[in-house]
Amino acid sequence: MKMDLIDPEFPKTLERFGAGSAFECFNCGSCVAVCPLVSGHFPRKMIRYAQLGATEKILRDAKDLWKCLHCGLCSRTCPRGADPGELILSLRRFTLDHWKRWPNV
Ligand code: SF4
Ligand code: SF4
Q1: Which DSSP symbol is given to 81?
Q2: Distance in Å, CA 26 to ligand 1 centroid
Q3: Reported pTM
Q4: CB-hemisphere CA count at 13 Å for 87?
Q5: pLDDT digits (tens, 9 = 90+) for 44-70
Q6: Among 81, 17, 75, which Cα is nearest to 50's?
Q7: Closest by alpha carbon to 51, among 72, 28, 76, 27?
Q8: Smallest Cα–Cα separation from 67: which of 95, 88, 97, 98?
Q9: Residue of the nearest CA to atom 4 in ligand 2?
Q10: Three-state SS at 29
Q11: Other C-beta atoms within 10 Å of 74: how many?
Q12: Which of 7, 17, 39, 102 has the fewest CB atoms found within 10 Å of its own CB?
């Protein structure tokens, strides 16, 4: 079975794309409860991937990032100031940068 690669420095890398708050998240799930998408533990799942540096999973599920409506409910609700809405935008920027550099990966 193929193992996904993990980059423990990824939350720091994400600062280049606009958000460095991934480590603030303690996975309470409040953002999932208020997100109108109500789908697949979004956005917490993506934030957890970012914390772990599970970039292959982020890229594999990247289409979900473009479902975000930018309503800001998650960021207003987050008790830790993790700003999940901004994290989602940062993950989009990371994904676009990755695809620009490595279009076939
Ligand atoms: S509400 Fe904030 S702390 Fe809770 S899971 Fe979402 S991002 Fe993490
Ligand atoms: S900003 Fe995006 S991720 Fe956050 S609650 Fe709204 S739709 Fe969901």
Answers
A1: -
A2: 6
A3: 0.90
A4: 28
A5: 999 999 999 999 999 999 999 999 999
A6: 17
A7: 27
A8: 88
A9: 74
A10: coil
A11: 27
A12: 102
